[in-house]
Amino acid sequence: MNVLVINAGSSSLKYQLYDMSTESVLAKGLVERIGMDSSILTHEVEGQPEVREVSEILEHTTAVRKVLDMLTHRKFGVIDSVDEIQAVGHRVVHGGETFRESVLIDANVKLEIRKLFDLAPLHNPAHMMGIVAVETNLPDVPQAVVFDTAFHQTMPPTSYLYAIPMVLYRKHKIRRYGFHGTSHDYVSQTAAEFLGRPLESLKMVSCHIGNGASCTAILHGKSYDTSMGMTPLEGLMMGTRSGDLDPAVVPFTINKEDLTLNEVNSMLNKHSGLLAVSGVSSDMREVVQAMNEGNESARLAFEMYAYRIRKYIGAYAAAMNGLDVIVFTAGIGENSDLLRKKVCEGLTFLGLELDEERNQARSKQTRRITTDSSKVDVLVVPTNEELLIARDTYRLVQKAAMAKSETPS
Ligand code: ADP
Fold first, then answer.
1. Which residues are catalytic?
2. Rounded to an integer, what is the distance from CA 92 to the centroid of its chain?
3. Is 189 near ligand 1, meaning CB less than 6 Å away?
4. Reduced to 3 DSSP states, what percent helix, strand and coil does the chain have, rounded to the nearest 5?
5. Which of 26, 173, 17, 39 has the alpha carbon at shortest distance from 87?
6. Is 335 in the pocket of ligand 1 (CB under 6 A)?
7. Burial label, 386 (beta-carbon count in 10 A; 0-12, 13-18, 19+)
8. Ordered structural domains, the chain, with CATH
9. What is the pLDDT of residues 311-328, one digit of tens each?
10. Best probe residue, ligand 1, of 123, 180, 207, 211 (max atoms within 8 Å of C-beta)
């Protein structure tokens, strides 16, 4: 079965076509600048030169049609006809409290996703455009949705409630939801497989450290607590996001700097984090380079960044009353041995022993970076959210097909 994975943004659309018999990627690509006059489609097939096509793509339905044209293209395509796409899986950021797991799309699911627009105004409406665009182009192909929040729906109220008037939770569902769930789910499963231990037996902290960053306490395979909150602003320091801060900073800054609420919101989301403290960049590679050249602000930014990850790991070890495994993933977590070292340096009290050589080894594979005698295993696991979306979609479509064939006619 071939599964097309779609991640639709407001002006972009990423895709990957999977052959599920081997879980291999047949082709992948990106449509950028949707709605502008010169949209760009970039299409990649392993072992072949990248294809770039510039054209006018005014909305998502055309973007999906262009993608399908490319996938079936005589020269650059990988399938003969769109009939070879048996299912489509979509990434959806917010599933609220409604969706605890991935589901096949029907009219009711679409209605529920629409009800959640308020909670993710930048993301969910764009995902819906992607869903409708696929429906228009491939009306007979089943579609599934995989939510970034779903994995965290196992959190107990002690983790997900904020200590504010409960009426706000009841009326508006203001609570911690957590994000990057697909990644935390994927890397925790992969880590357990790598260790050859049942996931249900492990106390794990997974650290998804990319432009956005979050830590999750995974107790016996289920999300127990996570650092991002009602929105992806809470928790760790990030590329441009502040992460945790005293909420009183917001009204104080508004008064002192004569800013509007929207301006402060934008400051905390887009002009804070690594970028603000280093004064150099939101990109970790550039911050590390500046630090190595003696820039003290860059050093401070790097150290604050690592310190906060370490604090969350420590907090979650206490929350779970123990810790067996730490997983690092995403752009920085997978690639920066320096950051991993800085985080682990202060965790020796847990019996964690980093193996310098293993930590510095360059590899795209899942690997252990602690010594064989370390009491806590630290792993680097390359994340693959698209593969998990493809797997969930495949499983749901197969289940539905089986249920249908078992129904007496
Ligand atoms: P996104 O959240 O946008 O998916 P990524 O997971 O791709 O982000 O992570 C991007 C971050 O990874 C950037 O800060 C980038 O500098 C960092 N990164 C990538 N490679 C390295 C590296 N070799 N060393 C340090 N940081 C790296």
1. 148
2. 10
3. no
4. 45, 20, 35
5. 17
6. yes
7. buried
8. 2-147 (3.30.420.40), 196-385 (3.30.420.40)
9. 999 999 999 999 999 999
10. 211
